[in-house]
Amino acid sequence: MMTRLRRAGLLWPTVFAGLGCVMLLALGTWQVQRLQWKQGLIDRIERRATAEPVSLAAVLETWAETQDVEYMRVRLAGRFRHGLERHVYTVVQGQVGWRVVTPLETADGRIVLVDRGFVPDTLKDPETRAPGQVQGAVVLTGLARAPGRQGPFVPDNDLAQNTWYWRDLAGMASSVLQPERRAKVVPFFVEAETGPTPGGWPRGGVTRLKLSNRHLEYAITWYGLAGALLVVYGFFARSRLVG
User: Fold this and answer.
1) Where does 72-200 sit in CATH, by number?
2) pLDDT per position as a tens digit, 32-77
């Protein structure tokens, strides 16, 4: 067989076609595995984001056990410290603006960094949305989110200008609180859900809950390329062997 392939000039084409086919099939299988992982993640987000909200103590207990509290619904009660709000640059539906992150102090002294939602760039200054700076005790529901990470192309946060490009929980805590108070900061953010806010800003409920899931499409593409490679090789080999 090897001699016949060599005589027909098919030895190396066969080797390369075989290796290429194996690589394409492996890529397709990897995408199938990614599809299963992504679907599981989507299902978990949906379950958590639609479940009944639990207390902050319950979420902290889960964090202590697994450090996995992503998208858990939590009910908070406390007072906002609006003078310490932080601004995180963002773009929502093509509109440039800011996510307003404000410390909320609970009755037992814990501090939660609450992402209250989106404001357009023209409303970055708190004085332009004074009705939304609610005073006194508040109760809200939100989704727990883990601290952010700086990506390779994300600029450094500018603490002096209160301009943040990624949600650095430790950095935000240190920029607004004295060292003795930082131990009271819970180790995750809470993104506020949609709710009535005087003046309409910040606008909560901007958590991204729908994840892109094109892995089935990618898997079909890789498997299709493997099939096409085999067909092309088959016609090429036939022309050499018959000719």
Assistant:
1) 2.40.50
2) 999 999 998 899 999 999 999 999 999 999 999 998 999 999 999 9
Kindly report the pTM of this predicted structure. Answer: 0.82
H/E element, 233: helix 215-242
Sequence ranges of the chain with CATH classification 2.40.50:
72-200
For the chain, the average pLDDT equals 90
H or E, element range at 34: helix 11-50
| Single-letter residue type at 217 | E
CA–CA distance, 159 with 183 (Å, rounded to integer):
20
Max mean pLDDT range (75-84, 208-217, 228-237): 75-84
Q: What is the DSSP letter of 125?
A: S
Give the β-pairing of 95-105 and 73-80.
antiparallel
Q: How many residues does the chain have?
A: 243
Per-residue DSSP letters for 9-27? T-HHHHHHHHHHHHHHHHH
Q: Is 50 exposed, middle or buried (0-12, 13-18, 19+ CB in 10 A)?
A: exposed
